[in-house]
Design brief:
Elements: E1 15-20, H1 24-40, E2 48-53, H2 59-67, E3 74-82, H3 88-107, E4 111-118, H4 121-127, H5 135-153
Parallel strand pairs: 1-2, 1-3, 3-4
Helix pairs in contact: 1-5, 2-3
Length: about 150
């Protein structure tokens, strides 16, 4: 049996990060985690492009625009949707997840979902670099592994 696994090191790849400005206290930490992970894995700072969008709901459209560009190899989507006392959370979280997934499938490029969907600001902070690690870093590692795996397959 031949087993293919992506490595955690890549060079020469161009990565776009799309980040929701809403809850930017959290998102900025996710971005830094993603940047750190990419650079540690061999991606040059000059090969990382960051685009801010108003909130999480707008992420899929800009992710799609980046995925359509021939000079972008992968997209990392970062943001934070925090449950409140309204149904807003379910609508936004669900639509963002579906949209990001659709962009990846339609483009054939890795499009990582690094949008936190949490109940409280404390949970968001935990996932943005405190107790539970940094989901931005995890999303970057996912992109690196997927790009490496795609290179093995092709």
């Amino acid at each position: 049996m031949k087993v293919l696994e992506g490595q955690l090191s890549i060079q020469g790849k161009k990565i776009a990060i799309v980040a929701g400005r809403f809850n930017s206290l959290i998102t900025k930490q996710l971005i830094e985690g993603a940047r750190d992970g990419l650079v540690r894995s061999g991606v040059s700072e000059e090969d990382i492009t960051l685009a801010w969008v108003p909130g999480a709901y707008e992420i899929p459209l800009i992710a799609k625009k980046f995925a359509e560009k021939s000079d972008i190899d992968a997209v990392i989507c970062l943001g934070a949707v925090i449950r409140g006392a309204t149904a807003h959370f379910e609508y936004v979280a669900g639509e963002v997840a579906k949209g990001v997934s659709r962009v990846g499938l339609e483009s054939g490029k890795p499009v990582m979902f690094g949008v936190l969907t949490v109940d409280t600001i404390e949970q968001a902070l935990e996932r943005a670099g405190t107790k539970a690690g940094n989901n931005g870093f995890a999303a970057a590692m996912g992109v690196v592994e997927m790009l490496s795996l795609i290179d093995e397959i092709i």
